[in-house]
Amino acid sequence: MEGLRVIRRKNKLFDDWPEKYDRWFTTPMGALVKEYEEELILDLLRPAPGEIILDAGCGTGVFTLDILSFGPDVIGLDISLPMLKRAAEKAKGHPFQTVLADMSRLPFQDSSFDKVVSVTALEFIKDAKPAVNELFRVTKKGGCIVVATLNSLSPWALRRKAAAKKGHSLFKQAIFRSPDELQSLAAVGGVIKTAIHFQKEDDHAPEIEHEGQKKGLNTGAFVAVRWEKP
pLDDT for 51-72, tens place per residue? Predict the structure, then answer.
């Protein structure tokens, strides 16, 4: 029963956030951040027509619609029913199905998906290796797993930790990981990149972002890895 209580606590945490989460991406800064995060995710995932992709921890579907635009079928999984309902509403008319479940215990058979993606969900899982193992388990041989999370090496992480100390409900629960820590969660090597090299107060954010990506800096606020299942 302890595991069930943990799931319920997590579920309640995210249930209160769908509207706030989506509202952030409608602000000028939120829209700019999403543009570069989306670009990185799609570059690593490379979705294609005919594929079946699992979006593990899909939330309100912020990135799901971008993936669907390339023609695959997508299964969106999340622990929060309000989040899933919002994702389903956004993706109405697309080949999209929702599943209410914990990504640490995926309710799918081995090798069910061509590709698996998880965006900003892993930071709420303390013991992340079993969750990553689950993502590998349900991916077909030769398929890819793309995971993105919050980078502990970024100045954004310092501000978010400060917000957590002031009582921010989500950031109080977040676990920030470095690119090396993210990479170490899988037994195979992967391609790892970061994005969002500018700060909220910076002028000329696109120029700063371009320079950070050109230099391959590992300090972007958003860190993503692409693993291929052998």
Answer: 999 999 999 999 999 999 999 9
Instruction: Provide the pLDDT for residue 164.
Output: 60
| Geometric angle at alpha carbon 145, from 118 and 120, rounded to 5° | 20
Radius of gyration of the chain (CA): 17
Query: 120 is written with which tokens?
Result: 């900003």
Each domain of the chain, given as residue ranges in start order, spans: 2-228
CATH topology assigned to domain 2-228: Rossmann fold (3.40.50)
Indicate the DSSP class of residue 135: H
With H, G, I as helix, E, B as strand and everything else as coil, classify residue 129: helix
Of 150, 141, 130, 144, nearest to 195 by C-alpha is 150
Tokens of 183: 């990479």
Q: What is the pTM of this model?
A: 0.90
Give DSSP secondary structure letters for 159-177.
Answer: HHHHHHHTT-TTTTT---B
Residues of the chain with pLDDT under 70: 1-17, 163-164, 166-172
